[in-house]
Amino acid sequence: LHYAVHARPVVTDDFACVTVAFEDRTEVEDAGLMRRDFVANVSHELRTPLTAVLGFIETLQGPAANDAGARMRFLEIMGKEARRMNRIVGDLLSLSRVEANRRVRPTDDVDVSAILRSVVLSLSPFAQKQNVALVLEGAEGSDRVMGDQDQLTQVFTNLVENAIKYGGAGRQVSICVAAHTQEPTMRGPALRVDVADQGEGIAQEHIPRLTQRFYRVDSHRSREMGGTGLGLAIVKHIINRHRGRLRIESYAGKGSCFSVILPYE
Ligand code: ADP
Fold this sequence. Notes:
By secondary structure, this protein is of the alpha+beta class. It is 46% helix and 25% strand. It contains 6 helices and 9 strands. The strands form 3 sheets. It has a 5-stranded mixed sheet with strand order 4-6-7-9-8, with helices on one face. Helix 1 runs antiparallel to helix 2, helix 3 (112-129) packs parallel to helix 4 and helix 4 (149-166) runs antiparallel to helix 6. The structure holds adenosine-5'-diphosphate (ADP).
């Protein structure tokens, strides 16, 4: 706990005392620390690809100036690193947009099943490339909640993309909609969407930290798959804005299930 102490003398003609006020600064200081950590993380994440690009530019201007083969190879790597920076900046912008509106609950009438059908359609080529079968269940009709269409599309895109990336080639990713469920942590009936994969799973100690910005279980693998480490942080913020819950269950060697629980109103 961090306290700021404010003392003020009060003196009148026949009375003198000192008032002392204690101000709890814990939250303010924690927020300051988090901001500093965040800036350090962003700088580190951007500096790595930037350093690579600068290094290749120098090589192309110097020793490899006349080597056509090296030029093509280096340009390819520079393109990859630049796209990576672009993804990080895009995700940071999404995160800051959601955070800026976090107190305003979205009020559009949104059909979650229709969103899931379009997410599955647009991720089908990626799933095919990774040799993963996408199965959508219970989304034939229309399941409406109060929400933000673009943000919920981003939530399900991130979760299904992760399930494809980390779920293992040759396996199945299932997306299942359950309407009017009673969830332990929700007051009224809710809509639940389970995104389940059959991958390696996630060890229990990592689960509470998965939604922290830039937290990855295996950084190398995440980078290889084009990850930024911000996907689940964005998911968590959007779900909070919808007054919903994100539940993560995972068993090592058996796979993971990310459940999005949304109130109807
Ligand atoms: P990334 O861009 O690295 O995928 P995310 O924020 O989306 O970032 O996810 C954070 C980390 O959580 C990932 O790096 C990965 O280690 C882990 N993770 C996310 N989804 C899954 C999943 N379905 N199976 C196993 N690990 C996962």
